[in-house]
């Protein structure tokens, strides 16, 4: 797989880490498919990418928790561009709740659907297509919650742990031409950070050895590495971008 003018699909692409990833791929001349639940936001960002970078871009509304939406996204990309070279499974959600017994079945299922089920279906569809063509790269955006779970986000942590396992399984399934890896961020400054509590901000200062939150660009840097030619011998791997948080006692 060449590194120029690839077709790149990014879920959760209209905001946060996904948005910065879309901009970074477009800046490198790649064709970018922006996918998220809000179709209008995706279309707006796609137009922005084309205007600023001159690259082809497409916005597609896709609720990754729905199997049919995942299939429709892949079908649309094939219809428009004929292939998928890079998939970034970035879509995620972690709703607030009270005690663990207050977690409803609906909330639990929704969290697993968005964070894990969609990545499985898109990874399988795109991995199969890539393996049958000239290869490709898949990056799953996980979280340190997968290895440092806490009761405030336990369904999310369980889903992300599943995503880490999914990475290894997909890497083995579609080797050798398709590389599948994980980026595992710690707390990252995006629009979600506006809702962090003072307690959480203080915890970051004490629990993260780097002493600060990360920036979206730092996560995107790892994504670009894993989808680029310098990572040609890297598959089934997990790269932490967490300021050392996952190893803190």
Automatic annotation (TrEMBL):
<dbReference type="Pfam" id="PF13561">
    <property type="entry name" value="adh_short_C2"/>
</dbReference>
<protein>
    <recommendedName>
        <fullName>Ketoreductase domain-containing protein</fullName>
    </recommendedName>
</protein>
<comment type="similarity">
    <text>Belongs to the short-chain dehydrogenases/reductases (SDR) family.</text>
</comment>
<dbReference type="GO" id="GO:0016616">
    <property type="term" value="F:oxidoreductase activity, acting on the CH-OH group of donors, NAD or NADP as acceptor"/>
</dbReference>
<dbReference type="InterPro" id="IPR057326">
    <property type="entry name" value="KR_dom"/>
</dbReference>
<dbReference type="InterPro" id="IPR020904">
    <property type="entry name" value="Sc_DH/Rdtase_CS"/>
</dbReference>
<dbReference type="InterPro" id="IPR002347">
    <property type="entry name" value="SDR_fam"/>
</dbReference>
<keyword id="KW-0560">Oxidoreductase</keyword>
<feature type="domain" description="Ketoreductase">
    <location>
        <begin position="6"/>
        <end position="195"/>
    </location>
</feature>
<dbReference type="InterPro" id="IPR036291">
    <property type="entry name" value="NAD(P)-bd_dom_sf"/>
</dbReference>
């Amino acid at each position: 797989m060449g590194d120029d003018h690839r077709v790149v699909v990014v879920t959760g692409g209209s905001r946060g880490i996904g948005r910065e990833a879309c901009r970074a791929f477009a800046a490198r001349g790649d064709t970018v498919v922006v996918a998220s639940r809000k179709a209008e936001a995706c279309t707006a960002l796609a137009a922005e990418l084309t205007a600023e970078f001159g690259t082809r871009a497409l916005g597609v509304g896709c609720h990754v928790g729905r199997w049919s939406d995942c299939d429709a996204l892949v079908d649309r990309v094939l219809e428009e561009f004929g292939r998928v070279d890079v998939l970034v499974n970035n879509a995620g959600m972690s709703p607030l709740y009270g005690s663990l017994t207050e977690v409803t079945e609906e909330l639990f299922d929704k969290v697993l659907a968005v964070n894990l089920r969609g990545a499985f279906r898109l990874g399988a569809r795109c991995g199969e297509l890539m393996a049958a063509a000239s290869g490709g790269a898949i990056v799953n955006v996980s979280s340190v919650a997968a290895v440092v779970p806490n009761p405030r986000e336990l369904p999310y942590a369980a889903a992300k742990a599943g995503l880490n396992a999914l990475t290894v399984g997909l890497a083995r399934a579609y080797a050798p031409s398709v590389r599948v890896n994980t980026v595992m961020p710690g707390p990252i400054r995006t629009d979600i950070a506006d809702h962090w509590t003072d307690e959480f901000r203080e915890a970051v200062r004490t629990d993260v050895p780097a002493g600060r939150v990360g920036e979206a660009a730092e996560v995107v840097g790892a994504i670009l590495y894993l989808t680029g030619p310098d990572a040609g011998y890297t598959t089934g791997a997990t790269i932490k971008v967490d300021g050392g948080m996952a190893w803190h006692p």
